[in-house]
Amino acid sequence: MYHTSGEKDATVLADYAAREAKGDVVLVACGGDGTVQEVANGITAHDNAILGIIPVGSGNDLVRQLGGGLKEGAKYRSLYAHFNGEVGKMDLIKMSWMEDDEEKTRYVVNGINIGFDGNAAILKNKLALNPYISGPSAYIIAVARTFAEKKGENLKVIVDGEELHNGETLLTTIGNGGFCGGGFHSLPRADLYDGLLELLVVKDITRRAFVSLIKKYKDGKILDIENRDKYLKYTQAKSIVIEPLATQNMQFVGDGEAFETGILKIEVVPKALKVLEV
């Protein structure tokens, strides 16, 4: 058992534990999607390492896709259940960007959010530090405050080498899993094992239009709206490039963790991570 003490600490600890193990080893991440991401980044280079998850964070969206559902995966909270789990190989998202003339890379387990939902997630992280605000409540408050400002992004979005969008957006979500923000089912076609990324671009729509869509966005029915091409673009892809147009850098979140970059390159890495399914 290891207790993390700082940013990326779980990556270092997971890498060390996997290297030192004699044979196969399950590394159980106790936390939210950010902790799961850190552990995953520490074990992807080790064939003997398997990711286990006990979801006790503020979001816990990956276990929802794994089968935990909106109850945040009660079965995943049982350590005993992990001893009877089965091992699968799920996809990962690899994101790359330039920083100080050096290419940086990192794996994301669940999803990337840019614009409205990304800004809301960044604010949610700050609100979640308040002990009187739960994870889902923090996200709802953050959504309301971000909605008041209606902060999106001006982006060029290239999908598998072809331009899909160029201009203002309310939000852009790239997913391996289908949930974000502590239970918002934003990408209903997501599959952790299909070798594809999901992409949702919501155009720069009015507040009134967004209010009419948000329940379907939360409930996984965003593709069921009438005249959906008027409001959004949804597709699947193997690679995506996001370029900020209005500013040099953009803020976004990967598995709920905040980043700031210029051009962001994203690709799917099929069956890159062994995961314990309970």
Top keywords for this entry?
alpha+beta; Rossmann fold; 278 residues; 2 domains
Describe the structure concisely.
The protein is α+β, with helices and mostly antiparallel strands.
Task: Report the CATH architecture of the largest domain.
Answer: Sandwich
Percentage of β-strand residues? 35-45%
| Gyration radius from CA atoms, angstroms | 18 Å
User: Could you state the oligomeric state of the chains shown?
Assistant: single chain
| Helix proportion | 25-40%
**What are the segments in which pLDDT stays under 50 over at least 5 consecutive residues?**
none
Description of the structure:
The strands form 2 sheets. Strands 3, 4, 5, 6, 7, 8, 9, 10, 11, 12 and 13 form an 11-stranded antiparallel β-sheet that branches. This protein has 2 domains: 82 residues, Probable inorganic polyphosphate/atp-NAD kinase, domain 1 (Rossmann fold), CATH 3.40.50.10330; 178 residues, Sandwich (Tumour Suppressor Smad4). The chain contains 7 helices and 13 strands. α1 crosses α2. β3 and β4 form a beta hairpin. By secondary structure, it is of the alpha+beta class. The model has no long low-confidence stretch (mean pLDDT 89).
